[in-house]
């Protein structure tokens, strides 16, 4: 029935828990920065991080759901003490922050089975993720699914995020997709399902442990409450 399968990432294909709020990860990140010639305390680096994020998110854009790129935040943190730091080192700082703040990450049990099964069936498989490339790319590689997609769209690259219809349209237009042959698969009734509905695309909702709390049952073609992404192969 469908030729194009468009997946959300976190909470749909990857189970993850992060902690950017506790004191401990900020102290650990500050220690890493200090060891690389950028002396900070945890509270200092968190304050600068928050200020830079707030500055970037306050900028008006043409999108209804704008997205920032987090790299300039890490650039500001690093260049405060090392003005000549390279782009590669800034990127490494961003990756290290994500590693430190990630408490658990793993594929859901049927993720690999679904992705490889769709590819074997001749389907096109795309990723449409609200995420930061500096965080997400290393996780796609680590979990072994980076090569399972025909294309990967990450919101930090595009300046907008789900449920903004423009994010969906960027993928649709690039690959000249027929919406009637597409289905969006996600675990969030607002960003994943409402966004798909807004562009006239069918959707499959799977409720997982990290779906939004009290997430209402969405209006879409398929709803699975058991957290099993394996149902995708049955539709």
How does this structure look, described?
The chain is an alpha/beta fold. The protein folds into two domains: 142 residues, HAD superfamily/HAD-like (Rossmann fold); 86 residues. The chain is built from nine helices and eight strands. Strands 5-4-1-6-7-8 form a six-stranded parallel beta sheet, sandwiched between helices. Strands 2-3 form a two-stranded antiparallel ribbon. Helix 2 crosses helix 3 and helix 3 crosses helix 4. The longest helix has 16 residues.
Can you tag this structure with a few keywords?
two-stranded antiparallel ribbon; 41% helix; alpha/beta; 6-stranded parallel β-sheet; 235 residues; Rossmann fold; 9 helices
Short characterization:
GO terms for molecular function: metal ion binding; phosphatase activity. Its cofactor is Mg(2+). The chain has 235 residues and is an alpha/beta fold.
């Amino acid at each position: 029935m469908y030729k194009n399968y468009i997946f959300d990432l976190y909470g749909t294909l990857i189970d993850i828990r992060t902690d950017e709020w506790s004191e401990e990860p900020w102290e650990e990140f500050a220690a890493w920065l200090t060891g690389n010639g950028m002396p900070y305390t945890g509270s200092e680096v968190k304050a600068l991080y928050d200020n830079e994020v707030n500055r970037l998110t306050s900028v008006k854009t043409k999108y209804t759901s704008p997205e920032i790129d987090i790299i300039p935040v890490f650039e500001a943190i690093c260049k405060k003490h090392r003005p000549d730091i390279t782009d590669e080192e800034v990127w490494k700082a961003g990756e290290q922050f994500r590693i430190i703040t990630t408490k658990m990450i793993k594929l859901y049990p049927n993720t690999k089975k679904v992705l490889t099964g769709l590819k074997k069936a001749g389907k096109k498989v795309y990723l449409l993720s609200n995420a930061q490339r500096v965080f997400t790319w290393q996780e796609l590689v680590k979990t072994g699914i980076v090569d399972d997609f025909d294309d990967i769209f990450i919101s930090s690259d595009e300046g907008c995020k789900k449920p903004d219809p423009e994010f969906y349209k960027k993928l649709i237009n690039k690959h000249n997709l027929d919406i009637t042959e597409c289905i969006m698969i996600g675990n969030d009734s607002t960003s994943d399902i409402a966004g798909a509905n807004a562009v006239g695309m069918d959707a499959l909702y799977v409720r997982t442990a990290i779906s939004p709390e009290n997430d209402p049952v969405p209006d879409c073609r398929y709803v699975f409450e058991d957290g099993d992404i394996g149902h995708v192969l049955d539709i």
